[in-house]
Specification:
The complex is a heterodimer of chains A (253) and B (272).
Chain A (H helix, E strand, L loop, with lengths): L1 H23 L8 H14 L1 H33 L1 H15 L7 H8 L3 H25 L3 H9 L4 H39 L4 H10 L3 H29 L13
Helix pairs in contact in A: 2-10, 3-4, 3-6, 3-8, 3-9, 5-6, 6-8, 8-9, 8-10, 9-10
Chain B lengths: L15 H32 L10 H13 L3 H32 L1 H14 L8 H8 L3 H25 L3 H9 L4 H38 L5 H10 L3 H29 L7
The chains are: A mainly alpha (253), B mainly alpha (272).
Chain lengths: 253, 272
């Protein structure tokens, strides 16, 4: 009990310090925590927050699905067929070093400003993450399983469904947690630069209005969303890959 | 069947000669495929199969890039970007090491920093930029600070994790042998924290670069990110492509630099 109190104490001190600093500050640059929370409740009540959160989530989901499907498909092909690997691997390596945000200008050129470019950008980010994990998954398959399946007369389809997909599933599911986070971050980044809706668009808008309260409300929403999404993905990961663990580590900008 | 890969043992039995021929074919494909892509791209763009406005021929991109480098602003932009990147990255790394040291030394500092990291870490760093723009203005300070946040968290978290893995026997041994606090830090704590530190530095360097490009696209009037994004909004596609290519090269060099420093400073942490 005492340990728990001590653990929560810094949080209360930080909150109190924020409130106090906000009350003392009259430049409007640091609104007190209480006023930020009032703004937060109001934004939920008026539905502004709900619509922006929904827009961001929707884009995140679409890019996650697109990137994952493409990543698994190409990853299986690279991992299994030497010819495909020889042709595509150099291209993947060349493009991999490029920071994903650097593609924003190109997507603006191709798709214009707005949601389509944002989703395309986030899909690409997810694609690379899933691709790499799928390839490593296929290449780590126990050769014994492949030989056994082949000796038992498995055809290509059976090999894919019974051996490749289950084996690749482990690293791919493990990559899901990272991929979901990557999708969310990239969508928000995209929204800030070229968005027409969503949390990124909203926070950038608040910046132009110099509305620090709204900026903080947004940061709270983004933090919560990040935590909730990665927790959910983590639960999904432990549920689906209970027998093994470990993904290629990604990053959270 | 012949093209299947899987693993070495699963390859169908063939003569060693045929095996070698196939290996050579794969090696050749690796070389040829990027060239083939460039060739198809060049031809399609020149022949008008794809709109040049959206996908200009690589040769034109190169010549426009070189022109921007020699006569235009690109060379200056590269210099500005590099300076921001290095300054922000060093600031973030220094603060990250400081935070890790504070967490390792004091219980109160650990409690506070733990909460701060728990609360701030899940927020995408890109979203902190609007706040910094309001607080610190639109100058280089904001850009350096946002780049620093990219390095700070991975460095702080990984360095602290490294410090925690110190073998207590080493600490006790050093103490028994009469090591001063300074000697303890230099000869026991620092070497033990180094692998974690570099793990964080490699991740942080990547994030710093992302945040640099991002900050330059949204809130700057110079730098390679600005160059690339402005060109796109003006439909100067060749310039934009040249900018993207420059960023790719910059990213690659930056990564090589960090990994080289790591290999030189603590060779045992180098990954295969």
């Amino acid at each position: 009990m005492r340990a728990r109190v001590i653990a929560v104490l810094p949080l209360l001190v930080l909150a109190a310090a924020w409130e106090l600093a906000g009350r003392l500050d009259d430049s409007g640059l640091l609104p007190p925590l209480s006023l930020v929370l009032v703004s937060l409740v109001r934004s939920v009540a008026t539905g502004v927050a709900v619509s922006h959160v929904a827009a961001t989530l929707w884009k995140t989901a679409v890019s996650f699905v697109l990137g994952t499907v493409a990543g698994v498909a190409v990853g299986l092909a690279i991992g299994w067929f030497r010819v495909v690997a020889s042709c595509l691997e150099p291209l993947v390596y060349f493009t991999y070093a490029l920071p994903r945000v650097a593609l924003i200008p190109l997507f603006v050129l191709w798709l214009g400003l707005g949601n389509r470019a944002v989703v395309a950008l986030a899909s690409v980010a997810v694609f690379y993450l899933v691709l790499i994990n799928t390839v490593s998954g296929v290449r780590q398959i126990d050769p014994l399983l492949i030989r056994a399946a082949r000796n038992l007369g498995a055809d290509h389809l059976q090999m894919l469904v019974k051996v490749l997909l289950p084996a690749a599933a482990v690293p791919v599911f493990a990559a899901v947690r990272l991929a979901v986070g990557q999708a969310l971050i990239t969508v928000v980044s995209g929204e800030i630069v070229i968005g027409e809706s969503g949390l990124g668009y909203w926070i950038w808008n608040a910046r132009y209005r110099m509305d620090v309260r709204d900026v903080f409300v947004n940061l709270i929403f983004l933090g919560l969303l990040g935590v909730v999404i990665t927790r959910l993905a983590h639960v999904f990961e432990t549920m689906t890959t209970r027998w093994r663990h470990g993904a290629v580590e990604g990053v959270w900008p | 069947m012949a093209v299947m890969h899987g693993a070495a043992v699963t390859r169908p039995r063939v003569s060693p000669g045929a095996e070698a021929t196939r290996e050579r074919l794969y090696a050749a494909l690796r070389l040829v495929s990027p060239l083939a892509v460039l060739l198809v791209w060049e031809t399609a763009s020149r022949a008008g199969v794809v709109n040049r406005l959206f996908l200009p021929p690589p040769s034109v991109i190169v010549s426009v890039g070189v022109a921007s480098l020699v006569h235009g602003t690109l060379a200056a932009d590269i210099l500005v970007s590099t300076r921001r990147l290095v300054a922000g990255f060093l600031l973030g790394t220094a603060l990250g090491i400081g935070a890790a040291a504070a967490m390792a030394r004091g219980r109160t500092a650990k409690l506070f920093l733990d909460w701060l990291i728990t609360l701030v870490y899940p927020i995408p760093k890109v979203a902190i930029l609007p706040l910094l723009l309001i607080w610190l203005g639109t100058g280089d300070l904001t850009r350096v600070v946002i780049i620093a946040t990219g390095a700070f968290f991975p460095v702080a978290i990984n360095t602290y994790a490294g410090v925690r893995t110190i073998d207590p026997v080493l600490v006790r041994a050093a103490r028994n042998l009469g090591a001063s606090p300074r000697q303890m830090l230099r000869h026991v704590v620092f070497p033990a924290a180094l692998p974690g530190l570099y793990a964080g530095v490699v991740i942080g360097a990547g994030l710093s670069l992302i945040l640099l490009v991002y900050a330059e696209m949204t809130a700057a009037s110079s730098g390679v990110g600005y160059f690339t994004y402005t060109a796109a909004t003006m439909f100067e596609t060749e310039k934009s492509f040249a900018g993207v290519f420059t960023l790719a090269v910059l990213g690659w060099l930056w990564h090589r630099l960090i990994v080289t420093v790591q290999a030189w400073h603590c060779p045992w942490t180098r990954r295969a």
